[in-house]
Write a structure and sequence with these properties.
homotetramer, about 210 residues, alpha/beta, Rossmann fold
């Protein structure tokens, strides 16, 4: 069974024809996932859409989340990419996880959320500091909302304290980042493949 | 293949013949795991041991971590139990994850840490507030150290803000907690079983 | 010198004529601050405005932040109110702190940000769990952006784990919450008064 | 009135005659505080003491906390220094804040904890990543326990992602770190001086 991955880029900036550092990190993971025969369904630049504030799956007229939600749930793997601001995930990343909060009440007859059996990994970049905490916040939010996390579910880069360098401006990708991306992709494809074959059984409400 | 689970109780109190609230939450998860045919290797009350400060796997004379480490890694499933203090995991929980930091340099020829293929879940109790953040801190620390997290990898209880009630003094376990425990156990056993059959392949250093 | 306080309500919902639980907690703090002779400049329901994503003080056409920023900085005290979603501050709260990131480059000749000498406190409500972490995230973001935090700079309420009760639907405000609000207000007014009289001296760049 | 500062070094290593990176960051803050005429009461290397697990002010025989507590509360300013492990404060840092939890029940007749009127700042170093989150965890714990936080209450250094460099091995202290230390010290001395002159009034229980 072929696996499919989709990526979210939660940068604060809408597309302007230029790539972002978050895109570069996502791209690195995607290139490694492709080596594992995972198809890529593209990157959603969330800032290009109108994701309304709220905690339901459809916040009404003009809300682009229903379409994004459909695309995300059509994939087996979610690459959740975000920049770091103030040592924390972006407000757009938070917005997305708030909308996933609705999964809690969208369970099937076995109590399984729509995200069950799907694997999420995190891609984080920043000028300096914050990657571990960003992954902590996202691991908790995504896992609470039903996503499974493979061993080592994050690939990140940040510069030295109070630095200004962007990941995309590095002369080359550091070897540590490359080798981490390869391992993240390997673990992700392995776990997603098993879960696609054998979905969580869930628990019937009368069990 | 039979699965085995082991539990850590990171309460600040050494054993005194009485159970703790953390024990009660661990016990709830264990009873559900047993229904899934998981063997239970017992609960390690960490405060009963001398786990020396440090980030290696053996901090020398008198250090009990090498023995605890061996027991933890002999199991397929880790139930990581902690109380909440100041809205955060206990200092003993932090001590344990610091000792696991050594896994980063204990990889095999395919780059896999000793925790690869093993599943961790979190059991959290407090008088009030802090469970989501405790799970965030532990999810990140455990996942960074190679543990895989099944969908919904936490079972918790806390009381109302600034309350004083202990989980073990509740007249009965709230239904929401019971049903969560059943789902956590089901997801955990399912994922651990698959990973035991098919370990992560890892990445050879020359790939 | 009379002190002035302003409040931010970072609920995900725009005004609809009804009060929110966050409003109720803000109102409690305001009533206590008034007893300390602090004037109240009103609550900004952020969801009613178009606060564009970004990290500058003016993100261009249609951006309401410049006006909100002006109002916030005209006050001596900021009550930063947010609900809890997924155990974390709302995406709107995060949006606001991202916009304050610009303060870092808006320092005067003594290196002081526009927020220097001003005091911030946090008002948090949720159905269950998360208040300590929400205050941690906001304390760090606000303090990094130059706000001073008085002793005990948070007033919060959350219900029992996995509960559904709203703060505004409680039959009465719990005594612990009332007494906390009185102390927060007392500390806030005391500290803000001293800082208004004697602003931080800052550091000249050639010191 | 002369001000006094004391420092905690929460490194995992007991003293061995060599300085630690955390010591170096503490030393930088101390040198700046001395320029503001603050006396320095020394650094407590917590790992050299037996700080027993618990949440009371005296955990009985062999517990060194009562003596450390006395020394900490004799100063006006606390420099709370910690290294970063797994992107989080050290287990020893957490141990210390757990012991401060007792302040909550040690209030005077005006509801003031023993830490009221005292100022805390954080000194953080790590090989890579985690400083913002460490300060968030400590800001929340310290502020909940009654400490006041001046504007910009942290001085930190971390290296590039996944790096190995220690702060104390840098050829020289980065200018950004030096200038931050000067500002932290200036803000700290200013605020501590005012609070020493005019303590928080507190709230009488019958108000």
């Amino acid at each position: 069974m072929a696996l499919t991955a989709i990526a979210l880029n939660c940068t604060l900036k809408a597309s302007d024809g230029e790539s972002s550092s978050t895109d570069k990190m996502i791209g690195l993971l995607v290139s490694e996932l492709k080596k594992k025969d995972v198809d890529f369904a593209g990157t959603i630049r969330v800032a290009d859409y109108n994701v309304k504030p709220g905690v339901t799956s459809d916040e009404g007229e003009g809300d682009d989340w229903p379409e994004l939600r459909r695309r995300i749930l059509a994939a087996d793997i979610l690459i959740f990419g975000t920049p770091i601001w103030l040592g924390q995930p972006s407000s757009i990343a938070k917005r997305v996880t708030e909308r996933m909060d609705a999964f809690l009440s969208e369970t099937d007859e076995k109590g399984r959320m729509p995200s069950y059996g799907k694997v999420a990994v995190v891609a984080v970049v920043g000028n300096e500091d914050g990657a571990h905490h960003v992954s902590a916040e996202l691991f908790q939010a995504l896992n609470d909302m039903g996503w499974t996390l493979p061993a080592g579910a994050v690939c990140y880069w940040v510069g030295e304290a109070m630095g200004k360098t962007d990941f995309q401006d590095l002369p080359q990708i550091p070897e540590k980042v490359s080798s981490t991306a390869a391992m993240v992709a390997s673990n992700t494809a392995h776990l997603a493949g098993m879960l696609k074959e054998r979905q969580y059984p869930g628990v019937a409400s009368d069990e």
